[in-house]
Specification:
By secondary structure, the chain is an alpha/beta fold. The chain folds into two domains: 174 residues, 3-Layer(aba) Sandwich (Rossmann fold), CATH 3.40.50.150; 46 residues, no CATH class. An eight-stranded mixed sheet has the order 3-2-1-4-5-8-6-7, with helices on both faces. The radius of gyration is 18 Å and the shape is globular. The N terminus is likely disordered.
């Protein structure tokens, strides 16, 4: 149990460092982040992504389906000087009785786990006022590890790129062959069903009347800076202009959007 908590604390710190170094400055190109802002994270986990905003004195709310992650987060923030400006809630976003409007909403590595993203993007608008911005950061589905197969226990599968694009029955067979657990297999199949591409995400934005304020496609995910000491690299404009190549060579994409 202590080791599990230690791993959660490490992940919390990785999230916090990445958001402080890369996400927060990215959002600040559109909105100055000051202590009077109201910030919401959907799929907050333990709340590591919220910490840089809370450090600046923002009023922060995090929502997640996992009660365990929310409880861990509350423990992690116990000594924070602005802990009274933080609310962590275990709740289904679709059932949340909340009419609050937020200046900044962000989802980092979350949208690819949400079923029916078209419906979700419609629901999201109820939390936005006219000047709200929404940050999305996610690994596009066709990227080398878009299936999140790095969670596999097999040292081969965890480092093998693109095999998540196999037909589902073949994908399952490979996972079983290498001895992955039933829970891992079910989780990876769920991601296969909800994984989202750059093209489909932008179609959803257009259909749901969102405007793109910023967009950056990364060859090297900014999160790899903290995890692997690899500096982020933006994909070349030439590659980005060719979708069928771009989609397979993108490890992350960042967006800031607002409703029209």
């Amino acid at each position: 149990m202590q080791e599990r908590h230690k791993n959660k604390w490490q992940y919390f710190n990785e999230q916090s460092k990445t958001t402080k170094k890369h996400v927060l400055p990215y959002i600040e190109q559109e909105i100055k982040i000051t202590s009077d802002l109201n910030v919401l994270e959907i799929g907050c986990g333990e709340g590591g992504n919220l910490k840089p905003f809370l450090d600046l004195g923002c009023t922060c709310t995090g929502v997640d389906l996992s009660k365990g992650k929310i409880e861990n987060g509350k423990n992690f923030f116990q000594q924070h000087p602005f802990k009274n400006k933080l609310t962590l809630i275990c709740q289904d976003i679709y059932k949340w009785d909340n009419n609050e409007k937020y200046d900044i909403i962000f989802l980092r590595d979350v949208i690819e786990h949400i079923p029916d993203q078209m419906f979700f993007m419609g629901v999201l608008k109820k939390f936005l006022h006219e000047k709200s911005v929404v940050f999305f950061g996610f690994p596009p589905w066709q990227n080398p590890f878009g299936g999140h197969q790095q969670v596999c226990k097999s040292p081969v599968l965890s480092k093998l790129p693109w095999y998540h694009l196999l037909p589902e029955f073949l994908y399952k067979s490979v996972l079983k062959l290498f001895g992955e657990s039933r829970n891992t297999i079910e989780g990876l199949i769920d991601i296969k069903k909800t994984g989202i591409s750059i093209d489909r995400f932008e179609r959803i934005l257009k259909k749901q009347d969102y405007k793109i304020l910023q967009k950056t496609i990364y060859l090297v995910n900014p999160n790899y800076d903290v995890k692997f000491n690899l500096k982020p690299r933006i994909q070349s404009s030439f590659i980005s202009s060719i979708p069928w190549i771009r989609n397979f060579l993108s490890t992350a994409v960042y967006y800031v959007v607002t409703k029209i």
